[in-house]
Write a structure and sequence with these properties.
Length: 132
């Protein structure tokens, strides 16, 4: 199984446990304490209108997530955003097509471009953190 498929399983587990009729942008819905998963809004259709069938999630993978007992630390927040920590985490976007039931998004290695975490390390973390 690829790291992206594992991450998609994390998001699927989070969606299954969340009230998907009341998703709040930026709220942690992860079922695993070492990983943070937040709803990030909806996609847009060709006319620029919100497409409720295209859900965006951000998966934050901390450099210490594979350490036994690790709990993801809270982010600082502003009135409009979560303050990311590129020295400590990878921010990986996953899209869910609710109408057709599939996930997609960039490779985990591509998501590491904005982070100090090496892609190989991020992949090893994803492969070692179980689906909760």
């Amino acid at each position: 199984m690829s790291p992206e498929q594992i991450i998609e399983q994390w998001v699927a587990a989070a969606r299954a446990a969340a009230d998907t009729d009341d998703l709040q942008i930026g709220e942690n819905i992860s079922t695993h304490p070492a990983i943070k998963i937040t709803f990030d809004g909806y996609g847009e259709d060709d006319d620029g209108m919100e497409d409720l069938d295209r859900e965006s999630y951000v998966v934050y993978i901390h450099r210490d997530a594979a350490t036994p007992g690790f709990v993801f630390p809270e982010h600082e927040r502003t009135a409009w955003a979560i303050v990311q920590r590129p020295a400590d985490e990878v921010c990986h976007t996953v899209w869910f097509n609710a109408a057709e039931g599939y996930f997609d998004g960039p490779s985990l290695a591509d998501s590491c471009a904005g982070s100090a975490i090496d892609p190989d390390r991020a992949i090893n973390i994803a492969l070692s953190v179980p689906v909760a």
